[in-house]
Amino acid sequence: MDITALVLAYAHAEPPEDVCAVMRLSVLDWAACGIAGHQDGAFDSWAATLTGQGAATRFDGRGSALAEAALVNGTLSHALDYDDTHFAHIGHPSVVVIPAALAVAEARGLPLEQMVDAALVGAEASVAVGLWLGRDHYQVGFHQTATAGAFGATVAAGRLLGLSAKHMRAALGLCSTIASGLKSQFGTMGKPLNAGLAARTGVEAALWAQAGLTSAEDGLAGPLAFGATHHGAGADVPFAWRMGSVSHKFHACCHGLHAVLEAVRDVDLSGAAQITVHTHPRWMTVCNQPSPDTGLGAKFSYRHVLAMAAHGHDTGDITAFSDANAQDAALVAWRDRVGVEADDTLTEMQARVVVDGVVYTHDLDAPLPFDMRQDRIHVKARALVGARADEIAQAIEDDDLPRFAQLLTS
User: Fold this and answer.
1) Strand 56-57 and strand 63-64: pairing?
2) What is the percent of the chain with per-residue pLDDT over 90, rounded to a whole number?
3) Three-state SS for 281?
4) Res. 187: pLDDT tops 90
5) What residues contact residue 112 under an 8 Å CB cut-off, 6+ apart?
6) What is the average per-residue pLDDT within 99-112?
7) How far is residue 290's CA from residue 328's CA, in Å, rounded to a whole number?
8) Please, how many CA atoms are within 13 Å of residue 207, restricted to the half-sphere of its CB?
9) The domain that contains 215 carries what CATH number?
């Protein structure tokens, strides 16, 4: 099956219940991250410039047209970089597909169950496109959350709009000429904006195709299409349900740092003289900022998060990643004890940390039982948004989209 046929298959597939259950946890996780991202306030001035009129819900309480709401919600939900990641292609699926699905589902008055299904098939499509593009696409500098994610957002929006296969193909073609996003934005406000732009692209591409705008027959894999012009490997990707293995964040920093933090979670680092982090080579261009001086930059620094851990800072606390923390003299001096080395014998999910000669390891790919995952996400959501987390969880369980949307605004 070629990639476009595969994406179209996801667009019209009925997802299994166990994967839907995980997606519902991602919806709760996304909502908590988005509310907290708005409350952080860093994007207030930017969001205030987006004044289009409409009834679609935004985290900042303004009503907007569908595409603009998807843009704002995608950006704010990724603002803290605390949302889920799928390591199959190294992308953040939920922050792109859920905003697109929410905007269209609200406009059409659909139940939350249909929004969840659409977000799920969109996420599956984004992971599949990411696998098809391959690691070279990511390593050369493209941000899979934005590039592959835009195609997932298009699928999610198009499914809820009821697009035919012909119009969905046109929407994917339109998406292919818009989708973009670069890793050079990591550690800046441009990274969460990448997610918002991808969500907006998906909504616009689907709406425009519905309105009759035509496109290249195969914008993904055709001549001079997206794959050929964006370092796509064109890998063979079978149909499978992959979102059941999505990774949720329990540290408020780049997911590439989590295996390291989990490896030394129960280790007293305060007196360590020398620490060496061994990580997969691909993380060296993502998570190895040696001397960050902002809270955002600290979220992409092995050296700094280990300094935080050594000094008792909770890396699950979003407020710990502040500019003041990144510039703290004690932390800045301590991080010189940390060295980082690439090790191609490790997978992207694994880390090995050597602390004064003692070796500690962790593998994020180890299965997390559903009940444990559910409990940790609920704890995280309560820490981010308080008692509102339980109300959001109830609205999701009740398939009450209007109540869910109402709870997103502060």
Assistant:
1) antiparallel
2) 91
3) helix
4) no
5) 105, 395, 396, 398, 399, 400, 401, 404
6) 98
7) 15
8) 18
9) 1.10.4100.10
Chain-centroid distance, C-alpha 171: 22
Q: What is the residue whose two structure tokens read 């061994």?
A: 278
In this structure, the number of other CB atoms found within 10 A of the CB of residue 29 comes to 27
Same domain, 332 and 391: no
N-to-C CA span, the chain? 45
Q: What angle in degrees, to the nearest 10, is found between the helix axes of 112-133 and 3-11?
A: 170
Q: What token pair was written down for 69?
A: 């709401």
Based on the fold, state whether residues 340 and 225 are members of the same structural domain. Answer: no
Q: pLDDT tens digits for 372-400?
A: 999 999 999 999 999 999 999 999 999 99
Cβ-contact 232, 137 below 8 angstroms: yes
What is the C-alpha to C-alpha distance for residues 68 and 52, in angstroms, rounded to an integer? Answer: 7
| Residue 367: band (very low, low, confident or very high) from pLDDT cuts 50, 70, 90 | confident
* Gyration radius (Cα) of the chain, Å: 20
CA-based nearest residue to 187, from 295, 283, 84 = 295
130, 275: one domain: no
For 262, the domain range is 255-363
Query: Which residues does 357 contact at the CB level (< 8 Å), separation at least 6?
Result: none
Can you read off the two tokens belonging to residue 196? 């918002």
Q: Which helix (H) or strand (E) holds 358?
A: strand 358-363
CATH number at residue 306: 3.30.1330.120
Determine the average pLDDT of the residues in 53-67.
Answer: 96
* 200 and 156 within one domain: yes
Burial (CB < 10 A; 0-12, 13-18, 19+), residue 401, is buried
**Structure token digits, residue 137:** 């696409």
Note the pLDDT of residue 1. Answer: 81
pLDDT digits (tens, 9 = 90+) for 202-255: 999 999 999 999 999 999 999 999 999 999 999 999 999 999 999 999 998 988
In 155-282, where do the E strands start and end?
275-279
CA distances, 377 to each of 32, 62, 158, 319, 328 (Å): 10, 27, 29, 18, 30
Count of structural domains within the chain: 2
Mapped onto helix, strand or coil, the DSSP state of residue 276 is: strand
The structure tokens 């659909």 sit at 110
Residues 262, 241 within the same domain: no
Residue 63 shares a structural domain with residue 91: yes
DSSP reduced 3-state for 125:
helix
- Burial (CB < 10 A; 0-12, 13-18, 19+), residue 345, is exposed
